[in-house]
């Protein structure tokens, strides 16, 4: 019996040594991953106008001041600019509508990336019905790139 107990004690000691070794390997891998594989930052925003924007001038940056979601805090609802916090591929979707007007009118909006037009919506000549348009654009951005919506054309009495 003492021989059997001695073997059990030896195997128990070996198991403890193996467990300690495995714990050390696991800790080392976890640390390496934390250094080499940083956690991805979650970025998403959704914003809208809180009131009708009447006759915005050409060059006016549309400020979507009613923020519904701003995960990552990358959309600025004071200036209307989204700033990419990390390099990556981003998708932007814009929906715009304008009421009918019996007179000739029009409104053009550009989505801009660092002052370069990357998408647009034209809201023109809706004489007897509300007009609704949408566009989306997928862009590769680097940290610090800026995206905004700007009025590029306005004619007559127009609202957004």
Number of strands: 9
| Apparent shape | rod-shaped
- Number of helices, counting only DSSP H or I runs of 4 residues or more: 1
Uncertain regions spanning at least 5 consecutive residues: none
* Percent range for β-strand residues: 35-45%
How helical, in percent, are the residues?
A: 10-25%
Strand order of the largest sheet: 3-4-9-6-7
- Give the termini distance in whole angstroms: 90 Å
Order of helices and strands: HEEEEEEEEE
Mean pLDDT: 88
Main sheet record: 5 strands, antiparallel
Radius of gyration (CA) equals: 29 Å
- Overall structural class, as computed from helix and strand content, comes to alpha+beta
Name its key features.
160 residues; 9 strands; 5-stranded antiparallel β-sheet; 1 helix; 22% helix; alpha+beta
Question: Could you give the topology of this structure?
Answer:
Layout: H1 2-36, E1 44-48, E2 66-71, E3 75-76, E4 81-83, E5 88-98, E6 106-113, E7 116-124, E8 131-141, E9 146-155
Antiparallel strand pairs: 1-2, 3-4, 4-9, 5-8, 6-7, 6-9
Short account of what is shown:
The chain has 160 residues and is α+β, with helices and mostly antiparallel strands. Helices cover 22% and strands 41% of the residues. Strand 6 and strand 7 form a beta hairpin.
Please, could you describe this protein's structure?
The protein has 1 helix and 9 strands. It is an alpha+beta fold and 160 residues long. It has a 5-stranded antiparallel sheet with strand order 3-4-9-6-7, with no helix packed on it. The N and C termini lie far apart (90 Å). The model has no long low-confidence stretch (mean pLDDT 88).
